[in-house]
Write a structure and sequence with these properties.
Layout lengths: L1 H16 L4 H17 L4 H4 L6 H16 L3
Helix pairs in contact: 1-2, 1-4
Length: 71
């Protein structure tokens, strides 16, 4: 459910804010993830393989929630 929310709500909101479209936001996030993995992204967050944008965001949110408490 959270992943669908990212795709249906977060990407369009970011696109609207920056006068773009949701698929471009998704593409840009995936590019950033590719670059991060090429530069050695931390394995403790994402495992050993590259992940998709929504899963990447979910992993970051979960880690921040653990570190700083769900607010």
């Amino acid at each position: 459910m959270f992943l669908k929310s990212i795709m249906k709500e977060l990407y369009p909101a970011v696109a609207n804010r920056y006068q773009s479209i949701a698929c471009q936001v998704s593409s840009s996030i995936n590019h950033a993830i590719t670059v991060a993995f090429d530069r050695g992204a931390p394995v403790e967050y994402f495992g050993s393989g590259k992940t998709a944008g929504a899963k990447f965001i979910t992993a970051i949110v979960k880690d921040l929630s653990v570190k700083y408490g769900a607010q």
